[in-house]
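In this supplementary section we document a worked example of the pipeline. Step one takes a protein sequence of length 315 as its only input; no multiple sequence alignment statistics are reported here. Step two produces a three-dimensional model, which step three serialises into structure tokens for compact storage. The input and output of this example are shown verbatim.
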Amino acid sequence: MNMNEPAIARHIINIDKAIDAIGNIILGKENAIRLALTCLIAKGHLLIEDTPGVGKTTLAHTLAKVLGLDYQRIQFTSDLLPADILGVSVYNRDTCKFNFHPGPIFSNIILADEINRATPRTQSALLEPMAEHQVTVESETRDLPELFFVIATQNPTNQIGTFPLPESQLDRFLMCIELGYPDNNAERELLKGKNRKDLLADLQASLSITDLLKLQQQVEQVHVSDAILDYLQSLLDYSRTSGSYIHGLSPRAGIAILSAAKAWAVLNSQQYILPEDVQAVLPSVIGHRLQFVYEVSDKQATKPAEHLIQHVVIP
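The serialised model returned by step three reads:
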């Protein structure tokens, strides 16, 4: 394998600095921070589902600041239109032509805040950018930045004024995570310390776009053994044949698990995947893709990923 080990070490040191810097803002959530960075360097998109006020928006803003990336926040509401995201052509009287005015989607990091408050029509405006890294407006296709990362936050679907994301759109997100409430120590520090938004002003970028693109390239070079592929296929097969789940995992879900595990390995300075890497990313990759059938969910105390890990033997 032709991987530049000194280059890997340098980028990992910078990633560790970024994790520490983000952890000073988002207290007590190192695993969630690592998963978010894993999703980014795996070239995926991230969905954060949690109650309001736990730091979803702050995490997205902090990531952009620490990584030195262009950042746009789009507040999704019921009256938001696709043109508000993608952009619109405006007629110029002087030139007698239409000039395209790009929307906020043309940035490195996009925060789709409270995505399920918008109508399905507006939600679907993100599908082409997320899948193809391009935007088609009025029959003209425009490329998005090479490094393009969507972070969408979602309120619990039982709250008023929400439009649940369909399964096909949920599947476009590589990972879905929860932040949850802080522990006692972290919450005490939040209560005693400065406002986290005020601390953002002092943050310095720990990585450049070039660093992140190199990390994404290193993910593609991570070695995957036949034993790991056997384990992954066993996980996929169990989800489809056990009768425990409404629908089994799709081939795209299998590719997502593998991509996330390779990115997790890079964050841990590894040039190969271990079964533990697959298990580490599995809950966030399949949690929004896999659901128990009613009878099973009534009896099982575990989540789908935990259930899979318990029932599929590592080769």
